[in-house]
Specification:
The complex is a heterodimer.
Chain A (H helix, E strand, L loop, with lengths): L1 H22 L17 H10 L10 E11 L5 E12 L3 E11 L7 E11 L4 E12 L2 E11 L4 E10 L3 E11 L4 E12 L3
Chain B lengths: L1 E2 L4 H23 L4 E5 L3 E4 L4 E5 L6 E6 L2 E6 L1 E5 L4 E12 L2 E11 L4 E12 L2 E5 L1 E5 L4 E12 L2 E11 L4 E5 L3 E4 L2 E4 L2 E5 L4 E5 L3 E4 L2
Classes of the chains: A alpha+beta, B mainly beta.
Amino acid sequence: MRFITVTGLALIIGILGYLLYTSFQPVHEPLDLLPLVKEEAQEKEESSNKEGLSNVEQPALWMERAEMSLVDRTNRLCWQLILNTVEKEEAFYGLYGVEGEYFPPEGGAFSVQAENGRVAKGFSNLRLEGKVVLSREDLTVELEELEWEIAGDLLYGKKMILKNQDIAVFADRIQLDLNLERIKVDGSSRWEFGGG
Amino acid sequence: MVTMKKLYWPWIAGLFLLGACTGSAAAAEETGMNLEVIAPGGSDIDLRGELFNYYGTPEEPVTAVSFSPEFTVSAGNMKYDRREEVLSAAGGVLLYAEEMELRAEEIKFYLKREEFEAGGGFALTTGEMDLTGCMLKGSIAGGTLTATVKVGWRFREVEGEAEKLVYRQNEEKVYLSGKPVVRWEQGSMEGNEVIVNLETGEITMTGPVKSKLQP
């Protein structure tokens, strides 16, 4: 009888212990289209505390060297990016140290670089910021900001410098078609032909 | 035949304008010339089709500056078809070159053909010469400059009108037709055709000539 009581108590304590243990474990959220994810929320928290940043609210998710692929509404691959770090914010993912490729519908991929950016939670919108550079053998486009939408037919940019073999264009607000062949400038622009 | 003061300057100036406009495009294409366009009211381009549209604002026109040779064009809007090599400017077009100014409602530069057309009325001013009319065409390859419809010209104290003015470089002559009139301080002449020989300074008037001399 005593043996049964002790065994029963041990079993109950074991179950309670397991339940307590699992309830204090961090929740792992799956992230669509973001393979190669390394979660370092705990590490980041610790390191931030060490640096005296404990008052700053930290993002819930922190990833390093994440690869992100974005497709349009027809499932065509548009962006393939490698992100130095990704932070999960409330409504978007913050992207830092962006490299990769942009694939226009008619071919001829551009290499992409940007200091930072953000992508919407549903991956329907990408905004690259900082020094954004799209370059290909025949064309280089530098911008301070570039925005793409999954359902859109245009790219929107700010503070653009476009250069090809003998043309340079400087403009504040622009719209580009997805092939980067048609450019519409709102407001002032300056164009240089030859000698550039 | 009446001999008058030599009227070299208007035609030389016209030729200079022709050269400035067409030569700049050739230089842009071949020698990496610096052409700068400032479009304050927006612009759009088709890189594949090589079509460029520039828009001004009511306050500020589109400005194109060529650095070699030096000239400036401003207009309400401009179009550049790079494949066809046609530059069109419209809406209060103003072309400045050295000691010269051309105003027109619209100007088209056919860079490949080395020709230009100024329409909707033009006024060419250079040095001591003024030339006005409805349309001005120039061909650098053909060495001609043609002003048509209500042509008026003035050089120093001599002035006149005609319906058509043609300058031919190879002949060094200017042909005025369509009731051409030549006026100076002491009188005027009217005939069927006036030919101005720029080498000799002679003016030949053909057809029934009406002349009027004042003391």
